Each structure stands twice: as structure tokens, then as C-alpha cells.
Amino acid sequence: MTSPGATANPAIGEGPYPGLRAFRQSDGPLFFGRDREIRDLRSLWLANRLTILFGPSGVGKSSLLNAGVLSELGDEVDRLPVGRVFPAPFAEPAAGGNPFTFTLLSSWNPSASPESLRDLTLREFFRDRAGRVDRFDDPLPFLVAIDQFEELFMAPSQLWRHRDHFVDDLSAALADQLELRLLISIREDAVAALLPFERRLSPPPRRRLAVRALTADAALKAVTGPLRETSRTFGPGAAEYLVDDLRSARRPDDGREPDVPAVPDEHVEPVQLQIVCSTLWAALPESVRTITAEDVRAHGDPDRSLARFYTRTVAEVAAAHEMPEHELRGWIERNLITEMGTRGMVCEGAGETAGLHNEIVRALASRHLLRAEHRLNARWYELQHDRLIAAIRQAGRAADDPAGAADREPDARLRLRAAHRALVVGATRDAADWARQTIDAAARGADRRTEAEGRYLLGQVAGMRGNVADARTHFGEAIGIYETLRDGTAVARVLTGLGDVLLAQGRVDDAFVEYEQAVRRQPSDLDALEGYARAQWHLGHLANARTAYERILQIDPGNVSALAARGELLAELRHPREAMSDLERVIALGPDPARLEDLRSARALALAQLGRDDEAAEELRAAIEANPHNARTHLRGGEAELLRGRPEEALEQLREARRVNAPGLLPYQNGAADDLERRISSRD
């Protein structure tokens, strides 16, 4: 039975409930029912060298960390983005490299080049990083977190020998950095594997915190709380009915007969609650303002909701792209579920992702079946949640998919997958070898598209090594093949990749040419537009860069990177009120912590333009403390100090801007520095 007027195809993960995906840091206002856990975890993390957060899969560990604790942490701590150490099968690291160390560092510093991270140890990384201090020059507590730490113990056997070295390196970093506070989030069934390493990781004090399912009262808050800022409410008894129904939901493998009611449980599984609530929200007609118990009865079964979501998503995406459903299901099973029954990851190429057109993979991500992660200038995909694995396998059995589909995957594509996985652990030599084998195997099989992907990957490797000439050659060969295939989208992405290589080498004019060609071919491609905007900015064409970022925001209004860039540009263009609007929104959304110093210096400049001198001084101080070697911070600081009528302090900031270089001034900012010096001199 369905509610009158319910939509036929509700989507999971929309509205005030995230559905399968974990709560993000920006979702703090929607996160309810974990008040005690938030207080406990925050206190333990700040007080102990090592804190272990554990609980079953789907209990909400990542959500508690991001939306609960991190969303409330202010300037009283120094921290990094949440890290991962996912396993990378089919690849051995280059000599001296450790795949777990490399992947963790790439998640903590996603904008770094693979070459700069490949042989770096955790001990060296922390030793070379300038920590933040408070106003009394005392170091701030330095919080770092590693999510899904069970991945360390689920790696393939060929990587096991690197595990001990990784633990010893992490332990040495903790011993060196007295202000470092490490939080490890791990599934409960993997805690036993962690125990032998716990003492080696850190000396006391170290603590553990278990996360359990929600109590009935907490679940009621999680159901009703997110609606506070919406136009809908639950009618009398409706939310209570939903929670009671979830408490008595039968598990898929509990062995009970369908007609035998389940005994009410004491707790509610958070992932089931989110699946039901997000499906319910999307299924309601626009006109509904009061959610009734009847609405809940119509959409309140989590397992049916999840199964319907998966089968419907696959059917709709397959139909939209005119491909057989069983082929799309087979691709998902082969590439996104490992032999060990865990989530796998795939890397997006120029035109394909593990043999599937990028547009299809992006469609799966836009419908919340997959999660996209940007790392090392590449986009990686994985399933939104472990809970999907059982539903996918059950759907595959029900559809009676032909056995042995993985065995029939073309040899060239298997080699391409190995090349991508080598690249993600920084094994550029292995990645290049696999890419060459991909090209040879594709040529034998007359698979031009996979050959182009192999050549594109060779270009990426050459770019990472700083070999621009070879990168141009390989990218050009890939473009030639895509031109014959009439794949304009892939051509634009290869041009964007070449632009990225050139920009990283400081060849801004050449990079701009490639980005401009990419945008002309695909005016709505976000990666091409962002590269084009960056190049305009680096060249000093600030108004043009602003226009480009506004085009991105028209296409993707929630693009945090574009919003942050526009805010910085608006401050430099002397539009302080508009700049403050963008910058405050970005900071509320939880930007990459590595970018906070630039956002703060832009905000200091905007505040000075508005005459809010004390706030500008405080914001500039915070930006400099975050990274005293950022030349752009000091240049903006010089502008802010001059606006505040302090020419001597402005000159000191200018001298620092010319002295430091981590990062240095952009090309156009050298002229801005000369102009600032002239204006300071005129004040004397």
C-alpha cells in the first residue's frame, strides 16, 4: 500500500536525511541523537595520545566524527582532514615506499603530487609541518583521525609485509609530536586484529570508546530533529510508530517465519533509520506538511527500501544510457565489491572508469549509489555503504546473472585496472608498466578506447614525474584516438589533464591554452571550467576568473571549491560584502583544512575593507599562525594593514611575502606586491 500521490521513484539521500551516505561535517545542524557520544569522544580525543572509536558497520562512527565532533571544533585545535588507509591490490610500491603510508598521506594532503609523497614517512611529514600556536605562542592540540582503519587488516597478502612498518612509522610520529592526538575509527569485528598493535602504536594515555545503536529516545531525536528547519512535521504518534517499527524490524538472516512478529529490540540501527527516513521523505507528495503513521507504514521497511533503491537505480541508469541491466550489475559486482566481500574502489579515466563510460558512473554517483572522492588530481568511486553489498549480491542472484562474468573481462581492461591501482599507491613505475601492457593488449584486441585510456594514464605518470614533453606526447596520442571515436567529452578531459600538468610546472600561459580548448569542447565540464578559472586567476585576470567560477556555481551550486575561490577573488576585487558572504558560507560547510589559511587571509582583507579593524587583525593572526610561510597570506596582510592605517606593519608583511614561499606568490601577485610597496611609500 502506498500513500496517495506518492512519487513512483523516490531517491535515497535527499532532503534532511542523508540516507546511505555518512553525515558530512557540514551536516552538523541535521545530526541528532548523539549528544553524549559527541561530548565523550571530543573529551577523549583531546586528552589522550591514542583514542580508538569502534562499533559495528553502519552504527554511525564516521557521522559521529564528522558531523558530531569536527563540526563543533573551532580555532582551539590544529587538525588535518580525516584520513584513510584503503588497500590497493595488484600493486607493489616503488622502492622504499609504503602503500599504507602513501594513501594516508594523500588523504591528509590531497593536493600534493604523488612524487612528493611516495617515499615520505609519517614521521617526516609531521616533523616538517609547521604546527599552529595560540595567542601565547603555545602549541595547539594537533588532532588527526584515520577512518575505516580495518582496511589496514583487509589488504591483500602481498601488502601484509608493509603493515608492521606502517605501524612503527605511525608510532614514531606519535612519540615525536607531543601535541599529536590520534583517533582511529574501526569496525568492531576488526578490533581483535588491532589489539596486537595497540601498545606499539602509542604509550599511555590511550582510551577506547564504543559506539552502539541508538536508544529509542535518541532515535526519536534523530527522526524529528532534522525537520526543525523544514516545512514538514510528524503528526501525533507518527515518529514514535516509525521508531517502534524499526525496533521490531526482522533481520534478513534471523531465520524467523514471515508471519512471526519480531520481539522489540532495545536499540535502533542508525543506517536503517536513515534509509527509511530518506525514502519516506522523497516519497511524500509536495503538498504533505504533516507526516502520518500511514505514511510511515507505506515506506517503513529498510530492507525493501534498500533493495528497491538499488534495483531501481540500476534499471533507470541502464535505460538512460541504453545498456543492458545485467551488464551494469556485473560491472558493479566486479569492480566495487572485493573478493573479501568489502568495498572496492575504481579510478575515473579520461573517458571510462574500469571499462564503463564516465557519464554512467557519474550518474550512479549523482543518485547516491556511489560515493566520489577526489585524491591526487583524480576522482575515485566506491559504494556509499557496506550495507549495499548484501543487497547487490542478492539482486544479482535474483536476476540469475551468468556466472564467470569477471573471467570474460577483456585482458586490456584488467591491466588498466592494475595500472590505476598502482598509481594510487604512488608506484608510478608499476603504473607505467601496466599502462604499456594495457596499450599492447588493447591493440591486439582492436580495443581503441582502452588503448586511449592507457595512453592517457601514461601521460598522467609523465606529468607526475615532471616530464612535460612525454606527457604532451602521451596525451596527444590519447586525444588522437578519442577524436577518431568522436568522443568530445574524453578529449576535453585529456586536455584538462594536460593543463593540470602544465600549471603544476608553472607554465600558466600554456596551461590556459589547454583549458580554454577543453572548455570550448565541453562548456559544462566542471573539471575543465575549474582549470580554466585557476589559470585565469594565476594570470591575474581576476574578473574573468570570477565569471568562470560563477559558471561552475550555476551548474553545481554546492561546489565548495568554486565558492571558496570566488570568495577569495571578491576580496581581492574589493567587493567585501559579497566576499564575506561566500567565505562565511564556505567555512560553515567545512572546507579542506589545508585551504583555511587562504580563506582566513581573504576574510581578513574583506574585514579591513569594511572597516572592521579588530576582527581583521584577529583573522590575519589566525591565518599566519596556520602557516607563517604562506606568501599570499602576508601579501593580503600587507593590504589589510595599510587599510587599517598601519604602513610600517604593512611594509613588514610585504617583506615577509617576498621572503617566504610555501606557497609563494602567484605570477600576477608580484606586480601587486610592487604596487603595494609604492602605496606604502606614498604614505611616508
Question: How is the secondary structure organized here?
Answer:
Layout: H1 35-47, E1 50-55, H2 61-69, E2 78-79, H3 99-108, H4 114-117, H5 122-128, E3 142-146, H6 163-176, E4 180-187, H7 191-201, E5 206-210, E6 214-215, H8 216-224, E7 233-234, H9 238-247, E8 267-268, H10 270-283, E9 290-291, H11 293-299, H12 302-320, H13 325-336, E10 346-347, E11 352-353, E12 356-357, H14 358-366, E13 370-375, E14 378-383, H15 387-398, H16 411-424, H17 428-444, H18 448-464, H19 468-484, H20 488-504, H21 508-521, H22 526-538, H23 542-555, H24 560-572, H25 576-589, H26 596-609, H27 613-626, H28 631-643, H29 647-659, H30 667-683
Parallel strand pairs: 1-4, 1-5, 2-3, 3-4, 7-9
Antiparallel strand pairs: 6-8, 10-14, 11-12, 13-14
Helix pairs in contact: 1-2, 5-6, 8-9, 9-11, 10-11, 10-12, 12-15, 16-17, 16-18, 17-18, 18-19, 18-20, 19-20, 20-21, 20-22, 21-22, 22-23, 23-24, 24-25, 24-26, 25-26, 26-27, 26-28, 27-28, 28-29, 28-30, 29-30
